[in-house]
């Protein structure tokens, strides 16, 4: 039985999903339209096994779902509002110091 996640759990799952560039690309692709794993792998230029691992992570985070389609399985965003959330995050203005990367900030214990 599924239980409602707290706000913190939801944000943490979203953060984990967005922590990897390939998962970000998958989410943006699925924002545009549902897709089959083989097609996603080809479109993103990643191996099918690698994509499979990322899709499993996104499923575990609750951001994507599988939809049986005959002998194939299609992936889509778990909720259409996730597409709006991705657009909002993608277009948000970040306060980033010139010449400083998030990795450098992480070394100092911030990110």
TrEMBL record:
Q: Do you know which Pfam families this protein is assigned to?
A: HTH_5
Domain HTH arsR-type, by residue range, is: 3-97
> Any coiled-coil ranges, and where?
none
- Which InterPro entries does the annotation name? ArsR-like_HTH (IPR011991), HTH_ArsR_DNA-bd_dom (IPR001845), HTH_Metal-responsive_Reg (IPR052543), WH-like_DNA-bd_sf (IPR036388), WH_DNA-bd_sf (IPR036390)
Organism superkingdom: Bacteria
Q: Which PANTHER family match?
A: HTH-TYPE TRANSCRIPTIONAL REGULATOR CMTR, TRANSCRIPTIONAL REGULATOR-RELATED
Entry protein name: Metalloregulator ArsR/SmtB family transcription factor
The source organism is: Kitasatospora putterlickiae
């Amino acid at each position: 039985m599924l239980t409602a996640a707290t706000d913190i759990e939801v944000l943490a799952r979203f953060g984990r999903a967005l922590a990897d560039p390939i998962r970000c690309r998958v989410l943006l692709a699925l924002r545009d339209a549902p897709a089959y794993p083989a097609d996603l792998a080809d479109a993103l230029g990643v191996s099918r096994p690698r994509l499979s691992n990322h899709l499993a992570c996104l499923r575990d985070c609750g951001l994507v779902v599988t939809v049986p389609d005959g002998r194939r399985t299609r992936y889509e965003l778990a909720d259409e509002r996730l597409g709006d959330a991705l657009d909002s995050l993608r277009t948000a203005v970040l306060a980033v110091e010139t010449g400083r990367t998030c990795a450098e900030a992480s070394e100092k214990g911030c990110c």
